[in-house]
Amino acid sequence: MEVADETVDKLLDEGRAPAEILLLTTGAQHPWAEHELSFGEDAYWRQLAAGEDVFCAHASSLSRTSQRPVVLLAVNGGTDPEAAAALPAALEKATEKLIVCGDPGRLRALL
Question: Which pLDDT value is given to residue 74?
Fold first, then answer.
């Protein structure tokens, strides 16, 4: 998760608008998503619709997310089949760039 957060910061420093970035996780939710979900599902998903900031979601909710120019997939857990399924699904959401963060050995095995 730390590498994913650093990557988001780097993208923002390079000039990407926050609304261009979707961060997905395969294991535990990102802390931002956990915090926002504490206010309720409706408020959380309204933020995605508003499209004003980086949005963090679990890969299992990809059907609810919209496309964004940059999708960052943090392979931070979940089963191998779940993580493997998240890769092509995340690619479909990325209109310009897909960045995958995780253990290189596990990622090679999933690919």
Answer: 97
Number of neighbours of residue 4 by Cβ within 10 angstroms: 22
Residue found under tokens 């960052």 = 72
List 56's β-bridge partners, or say none.
23
Distant-in-sequence, close-in-space partners of 29: CB < 8 Å, separation ≥ 6: 37, 56, 58
Cα separation of 19 and 83, whole Å? Answer: 24
- Tell me the DSSP string of 44-56: HHHHHHHT-S-EE
How many other CB atoms are there within 10 angstroms of residue 27's CB atom?
16
pTM assigned to the model: 0.93
The per-residue pLDDT for range 5-61, each reduced to its tens digit, is 999 999 999 999 999 999 999 999 999 999 999 999 999 999 998 989 999 999 999
